[in-house]
Design brief:
207 residues; alpha+beta; Ubiquitin-like (UB roll); 2 domains; 5-stranded mixed beta sheet
Length: 207
Amino acid sequence: MEFYLDDREMRPTGPAGTLGDVVEEARAQVAKDDRVIIAIRCDGADVANDDLAARLAEPVDRYDRVDLQSGRAEQLVSDALGQALQVLEDSGQLRAQVVEWLAQGETIQAKQGLVQCFQQWTQIHQAIAQSMAFLELDEKELIVEGRPLEAVLGDISGQLRQVKEVLEVGDDVLLADLLQYEFDAAIDKWRAAVQVVMARAQAALSN
């Protein structure tokens, strides 16, 4: 087995029974320089975030080579929030399609699309929360369009609950109206929140 950290050979000093053991040792090494592990590649294949927990528990001897890449936490945050902005734009297109399906009476397709929208919105919400944790930011102190981020995220959560409640009632007309005319405010607030946190990450990178 071969282990590389930032393209340099790494020789684990502790037990390396699982991939997680190797990653933890690498994290400890790069933490001295205020860096974090941002990418893991096993035998030339990247480990996806949604598969990370399971892969970390695997025996490391199943791989011939493990490559780990480190970077500043601020860069990781900036990249993640950039992806969140793209997901936000994609969700806007899907939301428009859901509204069209509702207008056409395609209820099953509309509900399936809305489930996907909620998954995307949850991903955005998590990206903001995780990014703030990485940067050790306080959502009560971070200001978005003149208001604390905590309040802005609370507004968005309220709009999401409203959509869920209307969905549960089964009022497709009201659901379409909410998604088409009132949910733009939530999208705008999400975008502003992402941009504010991203600005903090990029400012730290430039220092």
